[in-house]
Amino acid sequence: MNSGIIGFWLRIASLFLLRSRRTTVVLSLMVLLSVSILIFLSSLAVGINDAMVRNSVSLYSGHVAGFNLAADLTPERLRIDGVDAVVKRIENRGLLQHDDRFEPVTLIASNPADEIANTALWRKISAGKYPQNGKAEILLSEYLSERLGLGIGEQLQFRRDPVSSPVTFRITGVYRTGIDKLDRGLAFCPPAILPDDNARWSAAIFLRDGIEVENIVRRYRERFSTAAQFKSWHELMPDLRQLIDLNYVSMSIVTFIVFGLVAVGVSSAFVIFILKNLREYGIVKSMGVTPFEIGLLIALEVGLMNVIACIGGVALGIIASQVMSSIGIDLTAFTSHNRYFAVSGVVIPRLTPYSLWVPPAVALGFGLVASIWPTMLVVRGRTADILRGI
After folding, report:
1. 220 lies in a domain?
2. pLDDT tens for each residue of 96-132
3. Residues in CB range of 27: below 8 A, 6 or more apart
4. Cα dihedral 119/109/241/141 (nearest 10)
């Protein structure tokens, strides 16, 4: 079938839609609002995923974590293209002691300025402040503080092993993140207080926006020795990765359910629309128009209406998403006890190809499916019976 014939039937479909303006407008609005709302909800779902990742990596771990790094490997060598910052940490496993109380701990020696500039752990300090560089000060979790019976300004000792000489620290701050891994076994101090020039170290690596984390990990693994280990947040937080995948699946299911219901409404309305114009379809059949051409006409009517409605829905959805992304949506009241929103409950909706094109694509697909029932009503009816029944 050439383009001229399709153009002819497209003009006829337009005339049919214009003749029934009210029905066309009502059905178009239903599709338009469905598309725009689902585009906004999809962008919101993407924004929630972004917020969970942003909260999780910015609190402490970074987008990429490096382990067992050689002492002669400098943080500058890890700052490859796409990397925004590298925080060097030396882990010192040992015991905290106060009087007759002992608690196992991993004491993280790192530059306070780097931690404050690149992580959000300092925002979770519930009392006191972060240790200062060059001073024998320590930041404890509330759990360790309670277990040792100590508060701000009091002193404790750290030993790497029972026979080593103790190092005395003064407590300057107490924090609580709500994440057991960070709250139970970690403490923080400046690096110069526990010097060890030959110690292997770990790194929290933070990436710029839009950089694929797996690409950075692959480049690190190609560039450095096999002794050094690099893991992305995907590997370190598989539960978060699964939750994000679940969000995409859930949003896809909602999209299909919504447009399934919309398709039923469109199909039912078009049956009424066709019954109202059954005389015209009967005359068209009596003129020798084939069942295929009648099906094409009805499919073009439904398709044309859906295309126009989808264009309006996409435009409205983009506007709504951009407006809300400029101001953000504060969900703190609903996420205050959620570990994936430990830093901030603000969600920034973000449009992606998935959120922008899936709703209108599904709407068009279901719209064509919706045209099958009214098409069968006309095609399967005998011309004489249609004209006799008018």
Report:
1. no
2. 999 888 999 999 999 999 999 999 999 999 999 999 9
3. 265, 266, 269, 270, 305, 309
4. -80
Separation of first and last alpha carbons in the chain:
32
If one counts every other C-beta atom within 10 angstroms of the C-beta of residue 147, the result is 16
Contact 303, 372 (CB under 8 A): no
> What average pLDDT score do residues 16-25 get?
78
Question: Is 207 a domain residue?
Answer: no
**Which candidate, 46, 44, 185, 174, places its Cα nearest to that of 103?**
185
Query: How many domains, the chain?
Result: 2
- Whether residue 94 is contained in a domain is answered as yes
Rounded Cα distance between 186 and 286, Å, is: 84
Tokens of 234: 């995907």
d(CA 30, CA 50): 30
What residues make up the domain containing 274?
3-56+240-388
Residue 37, CA distances (Å) to 43, 245, 254, 277, 286 in order: 10, 21, 12, 32, 43
Number of residues in the chain: 390
